[in-house]
Amino acid sequence: MKKLLGLLTTVMIIVSCKTENKSYKNIVTTDITHFWDAYDKITSTQDSVLQYKYLDTLYLQRGTAGLNAIRQVRNYTPEDYIRAINSYPKFWESIRENTLKIDQFSSELQDGIEKFREIYPELKPAKIYFTIGAFRTGGTTLDNLVLIGSELALTDKSSISTEFPEEEQEDRRTFFDSNPIENLVLLNIHEYVHTQQKPMVHNLLSLAIYEGVAEFVSVKAMGVPSAAPAIEYGKKNADKVREKFEKEMFYPNNRFKWLWDSGSSNEFGVRDLAYYIGYQMAENYYETSENKKEAIKKLIELDFENESEIEEFVQSTRFFSSSIEELYQKFDNKRPSVIGIKQFKNNSNNVSPRIKQITVEFSEPLNGINTGLDTGPLGKNYLPKISPNNRVFSEDNKTWTINVELEPNKHYQIQLENNFRTNDWIPLKPFLIEFKTGNK
């Protein structure tokens, strides 16, 4: 009987070990060793043809699905890799040891995934790939793949920043000094949350919620504070950050000030402040929910393509000073508009085809930056010939003139979009210039 029990124990241990090893198959690190194989050969020669050959045969062709995915998501080209390798030799050597000990984190990462499963039992499987890129992301996702840019995620205070361009050095140093490698598990769980979420929608509010939820859920799963400086700063400066976001969240193409940036482009000097916005909403929702597990499920499964669901969620968090509709109305009331066209009245049906210029008049001065035009609803065949070199603002920036070539008896459309801005970057209300020319 003792022998039988001993045998059963041995079998259970073997099975347990096999299960544990199998679970680590969801954490793939081979791209790192392949990178250093290629790196050593690339740095051994100045022959650019050989360098590209080594990169291709020793790294890119041997790449995992994760490497292929991160190259796709961040548009990494062979030229990006060769340039990065040749430009920053001291940096690469300073992070080599960190990257080569990545397998030591497998157990912690697996524990983190299991902690995530405890608060979200519906967890779907995903794979974590540690790759090496060319400085465009420390972590991102594609479908059910977590993609870690190890050249950023595994840095620490010993990582060298002095080789980077002067305008980047301060941001790099600040980032390295934050010891990202110490928060590696939290980063991975944050990205793992993204693999469970529904597709993001690319407006600033939805992106803030998408990122903030991932940060909040990862923090709840791991039971540790957020490592993102934006969260700490936002909580200490809640009113002024919220007020600024309320003013700017409807601005088109304004993500660079709030997301995935060094922080140098906003007045706060802190990167990724939209993370705080979404994080605080998620925290407000969670704290006021009676069923915490259901609250986590709701946060993760928000449907960003369902506007009414997102608006209802935002309203339930009581984060903003007023409703989204009221905030949008305030924004829209401040927008400049087109008040007229100098040469003819808009929607005219008998405009002279001999007109050589169209001058648009604005309700207030814009920022004087020449910008592009869009086609109207009828398409490019209704856009007049416009000289690209003769688009000028008046001295007071209240009018904008373009040179055109018109034909008789034609229907024309020119769309002015919100890429026209004031000095405060408030966008123009879209305006369609539409007219028909006469016989002469």
UniProtKB/TrEMBL annotation:
Pfam family, one: GldB_lipo
PROSITE patterns the record matches: PROKAR_LIPOPROTEIN
Name assigned to this protein: Membrane-bound lytic murein transglycosylase
